[in-house]
Amino acid sequence: MRRLNTFFLLLACAYASAQNINDVVRYSTESLQGTARYQAMSGAFGALGGDLSALNANPAGSAVFNHGLFTITGSKNRQQNDATYFSSFNATTINAFDLNQLGGVFVFKSRNDNWKKVSLAFNYDMARSFDNETYITGNSDQGIDNYFLNFAGGVPFGDLLLQDNEFLEEAYLDIGASYGYAEQQAFLGYFGGIIDPMDESDNNNTSYISNARYSTVNQRYFESTTGHNGKFTANLAGQYGDNLYLGASLNFHNVLFEKLSQLTENGFDSDSEIKNTSFDNLLRTQGNGFSFSLGAIGKVGDNLRVGGSYQSPTWYNLSDETSQKINSDLADDDISFINFNVVNVFEKYTIQTPAKLTGSLAVIFGQQGLISLDYSYQDMSKAKIKPTADPSFSLENNIIAKELGGVSTLRLGGEYRLAALSLRAGYRYEQSPYADGNTVGDLNGYSAGIGYNFGGSRLDFSFSEATQDYRKSLYETGMPTPVNITNKNSVFSLGYTLNF
Predict the structure, then answer these.
(1) Residue 4's closest CA among 111, 162, 127?
(2) Nearest to 210 by CA among 267, 281, 277
(3) I want to staple 46 with a disulfide (CB 3.0 to 4.6 A). Which of 89, 124, 374, 462 is the partner?
(4) Which domains does the chain have, with CATH numbers?
Protein backbone atom coordinates (compact mmCIF):
# COMPACT_ATOMS: atom_id res chain seq x y z
CA MET A 1 0.00 0.00 0.00
CA ARG A 2 1.29 3.44 -0.94
CA ARG A 3 2.03 5.88 1.88
CA LEU A 4 -0.42 8.77 2.13
CA ASN A 5 0.65 12.05 0.56
CA THR A 6 -2.52 14.08 0.11
CA PHE A 7 -4.84 16.76 1.43
CA PHE A 8 -7.62 16.17 3.90
CA LEU A 9 -10.46 18.37 5.11
CA LEU A 10 -10.35 19.25 8.77
CA LEU A 11 -13.52 20.41 10.52
CA ALA A 12 -11.40 21.79 13.36
CA CYS A 13 -12.30 24.57 15.76
CA ALA A 14 -11.04 28.12 15.52
CA TYR A 15 -9.39 28.08 18.93
CA ALA A 16 -6.55 25.91 17.85
CA SER A 17 -6.15 26.83 14.23
CA ALA A 18 -4.94 30.04 12.66
CA GLN A 19 -8.43 31.49 12.82
CA ASN A 20 -8.13 33.73 15.85
CA ILE A 21 -7.49 37.22 17.17
CA ASN A 22 -4.03 37.32 15.57
CA ASP A 23 -5.60 37.10 12.10
CA VAL A 24 -8.01 39.91 12.87
CA VAL A 25 -5.17 42.21 13.87
CA ARG A 26 -3.03 41.13 10.91
CA TYR A 27 -5.64 41.85 8.24
CA SER A 28 -7.01 45.00 9.89
CA THR A 29 -3.61 46.68 9.85
CA GLU A 30 -2.23 48.42 6.78
CA SER A 31 1.33 49.67 6.69
CA LEU A 32 2.50 52.93 5.13
CA GLN A 33 2.77 51.89 1.50
CA GLY A 34 1.93 53.65 -1.76
CA THR A 35 3.56 56.35 -3.87
CA ALA A 36 6.85 57.84 -2.70
CA ARG A 37 5.20 61.26 -2.24
CA TYR A 38 2.44 59.71 -0.11
CA GLN A 39 4.97 57.88 2.06
CA ALA A 40 7.21 60.94 2.42
CA MET A 41 4.30 62.83 4.02
CA SER A 42 3.30 59.82 6.21
CA GLY A 43 0.04 59.37 4.31
CA ALA A 44 -1.52 62.67 5.48
CA PHE A 45 -3.54 63.23 2.31
CA GLY A 46 -7.18 63.08 3.43
CA ALA A 47 -7.84 66.78 2.69
CA LEU A 48 -5.38 67.07 -0.18
CA GLY A 49 -5.94 64.41 -2.83
CA GLY A 50 -3.98 64.77 -6.01
CA ASP A 51 -2.07 61.52 -5.40
CA LEU A 52 -3.12 57.99 -6.36
CA SER A 53 -2.37 56.55 -2.93
CA ALA A 54 -4.40 59.39 -1.38
CA LEU A 55 -7.44 57.30 -2.39
CA ASN A 56 -6.62 55.16 0.67
CA ALA A 57 -7.35 58.17 2.90
CA ASN A 58 -10.16 59.78 0.93
CA PRO A 59 -11.70 58.58 -2.38
CA ALA A 60 -12.60 62.18 -3.29
CA GLY A 61 -8.89 62.82 -3.81
CA SER A 62 -8.82 61.80 -7.49
CA ALA A 63 -11.16 64.69 -8.39
CA VAL A 64 -8.37 67.11 -7.43
CA PHE A 65 -6.31 66.02 -10.44
CA ASN A 66 -6.43 68.45 -13.38
CA HIS A 67 -5.10 65.96 -15.92
CA GLY A 68 -4.48 62.28 -16.34
CA LEU A 69 -1.33 60.62 -15.11
CA PHE A 70 0.36 57.29 -14.41
CA THR A 71 2.49 56.46 -11.36
CA ILE A 72 4.67 53.48 -10.50
CA THR A 73 6.61 52.96 -7.24
CA GLY A 74 9.15 50.42 -6.07
CA SER A 75 10.39 49.94 -2.51
CA LYS A 76 13.08 48.32 -0.44
CA ASN A 77 11.61 47.13 2.84
CA ARG A 78 13.93 46.45 5.80
CA GLN A 79 12.54 44.66 8.86
CA GLN A 80 14.58 44.47 12.06
CA ASN A 81 13.36 42.49 15.08
CA ASP A 82 15.12 42.69 18.44
CA ALA A 83 13.85 39.81 20.60
CA THR A 84 14.37 39.20 24.34
CA TYR A 85 13.35 35.83 25.78
CA PHE A 86 14.37 34.65 29.28
CA SER A 87 17.13 37.30 29.34
CA SER A 88 18.56 36.19 25.99
CA PHE A 89 18.72 38.74 23.18
CA ASN A 90 18.72 38.19 19.40
CA ALA A 91 18.48 40.61 16.48
CA THR A 92 17.19 39.57 13.06
CA THR A 93 17.13 41.64 9.88
CA ILE A 94 15.51 40.92 6.52
CA ASN A 95 15.39 42.97 3.32
CA ALA A 96 12.76 42.68 0.59
CA PHE A 97 12.15 44.49 -2.69
CA ASP A 98 8.63 45.08 -3.98
CA LEU A 99 6.71 46.85 -6.72
CA ASN A 100 4.31 48.26 -4.17
CA GLN A 101 2.25 50.75 -6.20
CA LEU A 102 0.94 51.00 -9.76
CA GLY A 103 -1.93 53.07 -11.06
CA GLY A 104 -3.39 55.80 -13.23
CA VAL A 105 -6.19 58.35 -13.40
CA PHE A 106 -8.25 59.74 -16.28
CA VAL A 107 -9.77 63.21 -15.94
CA PHE A 108 -12.78 64.26 -18.02
CA LYS A 109 -13.84 67.89 -18.21
CA SER A 110 -17.58 68.38 -17.91
CA ARG A 111 -19.88 70.71 -19.82
CA ASN A 112 -22.29 70.69 -16.90
CA ASP A 113 -22.33 74.03 -15.07
CA ASN A 114 -22.31 72.31 -11.68
CA TRP A 115 -19.99 69.36 -12.27
CA LYS A 116 -16.67 70.80 -13.39
CA LYS A 117 -14.90 67.50 -14.02
CA VAL A 118 -15.09 63.75 -13.38
CA SER A 119 -12.17 61.43 -12.71
CA LEU A 120 -11.79 57.68 -13.07
CA ALA A 121 -8.82 56.13 -11.25
CA PHE A 122 -7.39 52.65 -10.90
CA ASN A 123 -4.65 51.91 -8.42
CA TYR A 124 -2.84 48.99 -6.81
CA ASP A 125 -1.18 49.39 -3.43
CA MET A 126 0.49 46.74 -1.34
CA ALA A 127 -1.54 47.39 1.79
CA ARG A 128 0.88 45.30 3.79
CA SER A 129 3.91 43.12 3.16
CA PHE A 130 4.19 40.09 5.43
CA ASP A 131 7.87 39.40 4.72
CA ASN A 132 9.56 39.12 8.10
CA GLU A 133 11.86 36.93 10.21
CA THR A 134 12.40 36.48 13.94
CA TYR A 135 15.04 34.37 15.71
CA ILE A 136 14.65 33.63 19.42
CA THR A 137 16.81 31.73 21.93
CA GLY A 138 16.60 31.25 25.65
CA ASN A 139 16.89 28.91 28.63
CA SER A 140 13.24 28.30 29.46
CA ASP A 141 11.48 26.44 32.25
CA GLN A 142 8.55 25.88 29.85
CA GLY A 143 9.21 23.15 27.30
CA ILE A 144 7.12 22.09 24.33
CA ASP A 145 5.93 19.12 26.41
CA ASN A 146 3.57 21.53 28.21
CA TYR A 147 1.97 22.39 24.86
CA PHE A 148 1.12 18.74 24.21
CA LEU A 149 0.09 18.03 27.80
CA ASN A 150 -2.41 20.89 27.73
CA PHE A 151 -4.03 19.59 24.58
CA ALA A 152 -3.95 15.94 25.69
CA GLY A 153 -5.60 16.49 29.07
CA GLY A 154 -9.09 14.99 28.92
CA VAL A 155 -8.51 13.14 25.62
CA PRO A 156 -9.21 9.36 25.86
CA PHE A 157 -6.04 7.45 25.05
CA GLY A 158 -7.95 5.01 22.88
CA ASP A 159 -8.81 7.80 20.44
CA LEU A 160 -5.12 8.24 19.69
CA LEU A 161 -4.33 4.64 18.80
CA LEU A 162 -3.82 3.38 15.25
CA GLN A 163 -6.52 1.26 13.66
CA ASP A 164 -5.72 -2.04 11.94
CA ASN A 165 -3.56 -1.50 8.84
CA GLU A 166 -3.62 2.27 9.37
CA PHE A 167 -0.58 4.40 8.63
CA LEU A 168 0.55 7.03 11.11
CA GLU A 169 -0.11 9.92 8.72
CA GLU A 170 -3.58 8.58 7.92
CA ALA A 171 -4.45 8.49 11.61
CA TYR A 172 -3.07 12.01 12.10
CA LEU A 173 -5.41 13.41 9.44
CA ASP A 174 -8.39 11.28 10.43
CA ILE A 175 -8.16 12.24 14.12
CA GLY A 176 -8.06 15.91 13.18
CA ALA A 177 -11.10 15.55 10.93
CA SER A 178 -13.09 13.36 13.33
CA TYR A 179 -12.22 14.80 16.75
CA GLY A 180 -10.52 18.17 16.26
CA TYR A 181 -7.26 19.99 16.63
CA ALA A 182 -6.69 19.26 20.35
CA GLU A 183 -6.89 15.49 19.79
CA GLN A 184 -4.64 15.80 16.77
CA GLN A 185 -1.97 17.60 18.81
CA ALA A 186 -2.27 14.97 21.56
CA PHE A 187 -1.71 12.30 18.89
CA LEU A 188 1.36 14.16 17.62
CA GLY A 189 2.77 14.51 21.13
CA TYR A 190 2.28 10.81 21.90
CA PHE A 191 3.75 9.38 18.69
CA GLY A 192 6.41 12.09 18.75
CA GLY A 193 7.57 10.59 22.03
CA ILE A 194 7.01 13.77 24.04
CA ILE A 195 4.17 12.52 26.26
CA ASP A 196 2.72 9.20 27.46
CA PRO A 197 -0.58 8.23 29.10
CA MET A 198 -0.52 7.70 32.83
CA ASP A 199 -2.00 4.22 32.25
CA GLU A 200 -1.12 2.84 28.82
CA SER A 201 -3.28 -0.23 29.37
CA ASP A 202 -6.45 1.84 29.79
CA ASN A 203 -8.03 3.16 26.59
CA ASN A 204 -10.18 5.47 28.73
CA ASN A 205 -7.13 7.09 30.30
CA THR A 206 -7.33 10.91 30.03
CA SER A 207 -4.22 11.91 32.02
CA TYR A 208 -0.75 12.22 30.51
CA ILE A 209 2.84 12.73 31.67
CA SER A 210 5.91 14.24 30.05
CA ASN A 211 8.87 12.13 28.97
CA ALA A 212 11.18 15.14 29.23
CA ARG A 213 12.99 15.97 32.48
CA TYR A 214 14.44 19.44 32.98
CA SER A 215 14.58 22.45 35.24
CA THR A 216 15.44 24.61 32.24
CA VAL A 217 15.78 23.67 28.59
CA ASN A 218 17.66 25.39 25.76
CA GLN A 219 15.22 26.59 23.13
CA ARG A 220 15.85 27.94 19.65
CA TYR A 221 12.85 29.27 17.76
CA PHE A 222 12.80 30.61 14.21
CA GLU A 223 9.78 32.18 12.52
CA SER A 224 9.58 33.31 8.93
CA THR A 225 6.55 34.95 7.31
CA THR A 226 6.03 35.80 3.65
CA GLY A 227 3.21 37.13 1.51
CA HIS A 228 1.16 40.26 1.05
CA ASN A 229 -2.19 41.96 1.38
CA GLY A 230 -2.60 43.68 -1.97
CA LYS A 231 -5.37 46.19 -2.60
CA PHE A 232 -6.75 47.15 -6.02
CA THR A 233 -8.93 50.27 -6.03
CA ALA A 234 -11.45 51.35 -8.67
CA ASN A 235 -12.42 54.95 -8.04
CA LEU A 236 -14.94 57.46 -9.37
CA ALA A 237 -14.90 61.08 -8.21
CA GLY A 238 -16.04 64.50 -9.33
CA GLN A 239 -15.70 68.21 -8.63
CA TYR A 240 -19.00 69.92 -7.86
CA GLY A 241 -18.84 73.66 -8.18
CA ASP A 242 -15.59 75.34 -7.28
CA ASN A 243 -15.18 74.11 -3.72
CA LEU A 244 -16.48 70.54 -3.32
CA TYR A 245 -14.99 67.19 -4.33
CA LEU A 246 -16.91 63.92 -3.91
CA GLY A 247 -15.74 60.36 -4.50
CA ALA A 248 -16.35 56.66 -4.01
CA SER A 249 -14.09 53.61 -4.32
CA LEU A 250 -14.44 49.87 -4.53
CA ASN A 251 -11.48 48.04 -3.00
CA PHE A 252 -10.52 44.47 -3.83
CA HIS A 253 -7.96 42.67 -1.68
CA ASN A 254 -5.78 39.69 -2.52
CA VAL A 255 -4.25 37.89 0.47
CA LEU A 256 -1.40 35.40 0.62
CA PHE A 257 0.23 34.64 3.97
CA GLU A 258 2.68 31.91 4.90
CA LYS A 259 4.25 31.33 8.30
CA LEU A 260 6.95 28.79 9.06
CA SER A 261 7.95 28.20 12.69
CA GLN A 262 10.71 25.86 13.85
CA LEU A 263 11.49 25.00 17.48
CA THR A 264 14.39 22.87 18.71
CA GLU A 265 15.14 21.95 22.33
CA ASN A 266 18.15 20.41 24.06
CA GLY A 267 20.00 20.66 27.35
CA PHE A 268 17.62 18.41 29.29
CA ASP A 269 18.56 16.84 32.62
CA SER A 270 21.12 14.03 32.46
CA ASP A 271 18.52 11.42 33.50
CA SER A 272 15.99 12.52 30.87
CA GLU A 273 15.23 9.94 28.17
CA ILE A 274 14.65 12.81 25.76
CA LYS A 275 17.78 14.73 24.82
CA ASN A 276 16.53 16.57 21.72
CA THR A 277 13.16 17.64 20.36
CA SER A 278 12.07 19.49 17.23
CA PHE A 279 8.64 20.81 16.29
CA ASP A 280 7.89 22.57 12.98
CA ASN A 281 4.66 24.18 11.81
CA LEU A 282 3.66 25.61 8.44
CA LEU A 283 0.57 27.75 7.89
CA ARG A 284 -0.66 28.98 4.51
CA THR A 285 -3.60 31.40 4.23
CA GLN A 286 -5.01 32.71 0.99
CA GLY A 287 -8.16 34.46 -0.11
CA ASN A 288 -9.66 37.76 -1.10
CA GLY A 289 -11.49 40.69 0.43
CA PHE A 290 -13.81 43.54 -0.47
CA SER A 291 -14.60 46.97 0.93
CA PHE A 292 -15.91 50.32 -0.25
CA SER A 293 -15.21 53.89 0.76
CA LEU A 294 -16.92 57.27 0.45
CA GLY A 295 -15.39 60.70 0.88
CA ALA A 296 -15.57 64.43 0.40
CA ILE A 297 -13.09 67.34 0.31
CA GLY A 298 -14.13 70.95 0.65
CA LYS A 299 -12.30 74.23 0.08
CA VAL A 300 -12.77 76.82 2.81
CA GLY A 301 -11.31 79.98 1.37
CA ASP A 302 -8.10 80.00 -0.62
CA ASN A 303 -5.88 78.31 1.94
CA LEU A 304 -7.91 75.82 3.95
CA ARG A 305 -9.07 72.34 2.96
CA VAL A 306 -11.20 69.96 5.02
CA GLY A 307 -11.95 66.32 4.29
CA GLY A 308 -13.93 63.42 5.64
CA SER A 309 -14.19 59.78 4.60
CA TYR A 310 -15.85 56.52 5.55
CA GLN A 311 -14.10 53.20 5.02
CA SER A 312 -16.52 50.29 5.22
CA PRO A 313 -15.67 47.04 6.97
CA THR A 314 -13.49 44.78 4.87
CA TRP A 315 -14.91 41.29 4.35
CA TYR A 316 -12.12 38.73 3.85
CA ASN A 317 -12.96 35.24 2.60
CA LEU A 318 -10.03 33.05 3.59
CA SER A 319 -8.91 29.45 3.71
CA ASP A 320 -6.12 27.87 5.77
CA GLU A 321 -3.81 24.94 5.24
CA THR A 322 -1.50 23.65 7.96
CA SER A 323 1.29 21.09 8.11
CA GLN A 324 3.43 19.84 11.00
CA LYS A 325 6.60 17.87 11.74
CA ILE A 326 7.86 16.52 15.06
CA ASN A 327 10.78 14.44 16.29
CA SER A 328 12.49 13.39 19.50
CA ASP A 329 14.68 10.60 20.87
CA LEU A 330 11.55 8.57 21.72
CA ALA A 331 9.54 9.25 18.57
CA ASP A 332 7.85 6.45 16.65
CA ASP A 333 9.96 5.10 13.79
CA ASP A 334 7.39 6.26 11.22
CA ILE A 335 7.02 9.80 12.57
CA SER A 336 8.85 11.23 9.55
CA PHE A 337 5.85 10.36 7.37
CA ILE A 338 4.00 13.20 9.10
CA ASN A 339 5.62 16.10 7.28
CA PHE A 340 4.83 19.15 5.17
CA ASN A 341 3.41 16.93 2.41
CA VAL A 342 0.56 15.90 4.74
CA VAL A 343 -1.72 18.92 4.71
CA ASN A 344 -4.75 19.81 6.80
CA VAL A 345 -7.24 21.88 4.80
CA PHE A 346 -9.69 23.91 6.88
CA GLU A 347 -13.13 25.07 5.85
CA LYS A 348 -13.36 28.59 4.46
CA TYR A 349 -14.17 31.35 6.89
CA THR A 350 -14.72 35.12 6.90
CA ILE A 351 -12.97 37.88 8.82
CA GLN A 352 -14.85 41.17 9.00
CA THR A 353 -12.61 44.05 10.00
CA PRO A 354 -14.21 47.19 11.50
CA ALA A 355 -15.20 50.34 9.62
CA LYS A 356 -12.94 53.39 9.81
CA LEU A 357 -13.74 57.11 9.93
CA THR A 358 -11.20 59.77 8.92
CA GLY A 359 -11.25 63.53 9.33
CA SER A 360 -8.65 65.72 7.64
CA LEU A 361 -7.44 69.30 7.58
CA ALA A 362 -4.88 70.96 5.31
CA VAL A 363 -3.44 74.47 5.01
CA ILE A 364 -2.18 75.51 1.57
CA PHE A 365 0.46 78.23 1.26
CA GLY A 366 -0.08 79.03 -2.39
CA GLN A 367 2.62 77.51 -4.58
CA GLN A 368 5.12 77.40 -1.72
CA GLY A 369 3.86 74.38 0.19
CA LEU A 370 1.33 72.89 2.55
CA ILE A 371 0.72 71.23 5.92
CA SER A 372 -1.79 68.40 6.28
CA LEU A 373 -3.27 66.50 9.23
CA ASP A 374 -5.38 63.29 9.26
CA TYR A 375 -7.13 61.67 12.20
CA SER A 376 -8.72 58.20 11.90
CA TYR A 377 -10.66 56.03 14.31
CA GLN A 378 -11.39 52.32 14.10
CA ASP A 379 -13.03 50.23 16.84
CA MET A 380 -11.20 46.92 16.67
CA SER A 381 -13.47 45.31 19.27
CA LYS A 382 -16.16 45.21 16.54
CA ALA A 383 -14.18 42.78 14.37
CA LYS A 384 -15.75 39.38 13.74
CA ILE A 385 -14.76 35.92 12.57
CA LYS A 386 -17.63 34.24 10.73
CA PRO A 387 -19.79 32.22 10.65
CA THR A 388 -20.64 33.56 14.11
CA ALA A 389 -22.98 30.59 14.68
CA ASP A 390 -19.91 28.35 14.95
CA PRO A 391 -19.33 27.88 18.71
CA SER A 392 -15.57 28.15 18.37
CA PHE A 393 -15.83 31.38 16.38
CA SER A 394 -18.30 32.71 18.92
CA LEU A 395 -15.75 32.05 21.66
CA GLU A 396 -13.02 33.79 19.70
CA ASN A 397 -15.28 36.77 18.96
CA ASN A 398 -15.85 37.18 22.70
CA ILE A 399 -12.08 37.29 23.17
CA ILE A 400 -11.79 39.88 20.40
CA ALA A 401 -14.49 42.06 21.96
CA LYS A 402 -12.75 41.88 25.33
CA GLU A 403 -9.10 42.24 24.37
CA LEU A 404 -9.21 44.67 21.42
CA GLY A 405 -10.20 48.33 21.61
CA GLY A 406 -10.44 51.58 19.69
CA VAL A 407 -7.53 52.62 17.49
CA SER A 408 -6.77 56.29 16.90
CA THR A 409 -4.35 57.14 14.12
CA LEU A 410 -2.72 60.54 13.60
CA ARG A 411 -0.80 61.49 10.46
CA LEU A 412 0.96 64.81 9.90
CA GLY A 413 2.72 65.79 6.69
CA GLY A 414 4.22 68.80 5.02
CA GLU A 415 5.69 69.84 1.69
CA TYR A 416 7.85 72.84 0.77
CA ARG A 417 8.45 73.72 -2.87
CA LEU A 418 11.52 75.39 -4.35
CA ALA A 419 10.67 75.85 -8.03
CA ALA A 420 10.74 72.31 -9.46
CA LEU A 421 12.10 70.79 -6.24
CA SER A 422 9.82 69.60 -3.41
CA LEU A 423 10.96 68.77 0.13
CA ARG A 424 8.66 66.62 2.26
CA ALA A 425 8.42 65.23 5.77
CA GLY A 426 5.86 63.53 7.99
CA TYR A 427 5.01 61.88 11.28
CA ARG A 428 2.46 59.21 12.19
CA TYR A 429 1.14 57.70 15.38
CA GLU A 430 -1.05 54.61 15.59
CA GLN A 431 -2.60 53.48 18.84
CA SER A 432 -2.31 49.86 19.92
CA PRO A 433 -5.23 47.70 18.78
CA TYR A 434 -5.16 45.93 22.17
CA ALA A 435 -7.04 47.43 25.09
CA ASP A 436 -4.11 46.67 27.45
CA GLY A 437 -1.67 48.53 25.19
CA ASN A 438 0.99 45.90 25.95
CA THR A 439 0.34 42.87 23.74
CA VAL A 440 1.02 45.22 20.84
CA GLY A 441 2.34 48.68 21.64
CA ASP A 442 1.70 52.02 19.98
CA LEU A 443 3.38 52.65 16.64
CA ASN A 444 5.47 55.76 16.04
CA GLY A 445 6.95 56.63 12.69
CA TYR A 446 8.51 59.45 10.73
CA SER A 447 9.25 60.04 7.07
CA ALA A 448 11.04 62.35 4.67
CA GLY A 449 11.39 62.69 0.95
CA ILE A 450 12.24 64.74 -2.08
CA GLY A 451 10.66 65.20 -5.48
CA TYR A 452 11.66 66.83 -8.74
CA ASN A 453 9.17 67.98 -11.36
CA PHE A 454 10.43 67.78 -14.95
CA GLY A 455 7.27 69.36 -16.31
CA GLY A 456 5.66 66.38 -18.00
CA SER A 457 6.85 63.93 -15.38
CA ARG A 458 8.05 63.75 -11.78
CA LEU A 459 10.54 61.64 -9.85
CA ASP A 460 10.02 61.10 -6.10
CA PHE A 461 12.10 59.50 -3.37
CA SER A 462 11.06 58.77 0.22
CA PHE A 463 12.33 57.22 3.42
CA SER A 464 10.06 56.15 6.26
CA GLU A 465 10.71 54.34 9.51
CA ALA A 466 8.30 53.04 12.15
CA THR A 467 8.94 51.35 15.50
CA GLN A 468 6.54 49.19 17.51
CA ASP A 469 6.93 46.89 20.53
CA TYR A 470 4.90 43.75 21.00
CA ARG A 471 4.77 40.63 23.13
CA LYS A 472 4.50 37.25 21.48
CA SER A 473 3.82 33.79 22.90
CA LEU A 474 5.61 31.09 20.96
CA TYR A 475 2.53 28.84 21.09
CA GLU A 476 -1.13 29.29 21.97
CA THR A 477 -0.87 27.18 25.12
CA GLY A 478 1.70 25.63 27.45
CA MET A 479 4.41 28.28 27.12
CA PRO A 480 2.95 31.46 28.66
CA THR A 481 6.13 33.53 29.06
CA PRO A 482 6.11 35.92 26.08
CA VAL A 483 8.95 37.11 23.91
CA ASN A 484 9.43 40.88 24.01
CA ILE A 485 10.09 42.15 20.49
CA THR A 486 10.88 45.58 19.12
CA ASN A 487 10.16 45.82 15.41
CA LYS A 488 11.70 48.56 13.28
CA ASN A 489 10.42 48.83 9.72
CA SER A 490 12.43 51.00 7.33
CA VAL A 491 11.23 51.64 3.76
CA PHE A 492 13.08 53.32 0.88
CA SER A 493 10.85 54.11 -2.11
CA LEU A 494 11.39 55.51 -5.57
CA GLY A 495 8.44 56.57 -7.73
CA TYR A 496 7.94 57.92 -11.23
CA THR A 497 4.88 59.87 -12.41
CA LEU A 498 4.08 60.57 -16.05
CA ASN A 499 1.46 63.17 -17.00
CA PHE A 500 -0.71 62.71 -20.07
Answers:
(1) 162
(2) 277
(3) 374
(4) 7-421+434-499 (2.40.160)
C-alpha separations of 174 from 102, 194, 240, 331 in Å: 46, 21, 62, 20
**Above pLDDT 90, what percent of the chain?**
86
Cα separation, 172 vs 337, in Å, equals 10
Q: Residue 39 in contact with residue 427, Cβ under 8 Å?
A: no
129-178 tens-digit pLDDT: 999 999 999 999 999 999 999 999 999 999 999 999 899 999 999 999 98
CA-CA distance, 186 to 205, in Å (whole number)? 13
The span from the CA of 289 to the CA of 286, in Å, is: 10
Closest to 17 (Cα-Cα) out of 341, 393, 287, 400 = 393
Contact 249, 59 (CB under 8 A): yes
State the Cα–Cα distance between residues 460 and 449, nearest whole angstrom.
Answer: 7
Query: What residue type is assigned to position 124 of the chain?
Result: Y
The per-residue b/e assignment along 71-101, b for 16 or more CB within 10 angstroms, e otherwise, is bbbbbebebbbbbebeebebebebeeebebb
Maximum Cα–Cα distance across the chain: 89
Instruction: Report the pLDDT averaged over residues 254-274.
Output: 95
DSSP string, 308-373: EEEEPPPEEEEEEEEEEEEEETT--TTGGGSSTTSEEEEPPEEEEPPPEEEEEEEEEETTTEEEEE
Where do the DSSP E strands lie in 380-473?
384-386, 406-418, 421-430, 443-453, 457-472
What is the number of residues in the chain?
500
208-224 pLDDT, tens digit each: 999 999 999 999 999 99
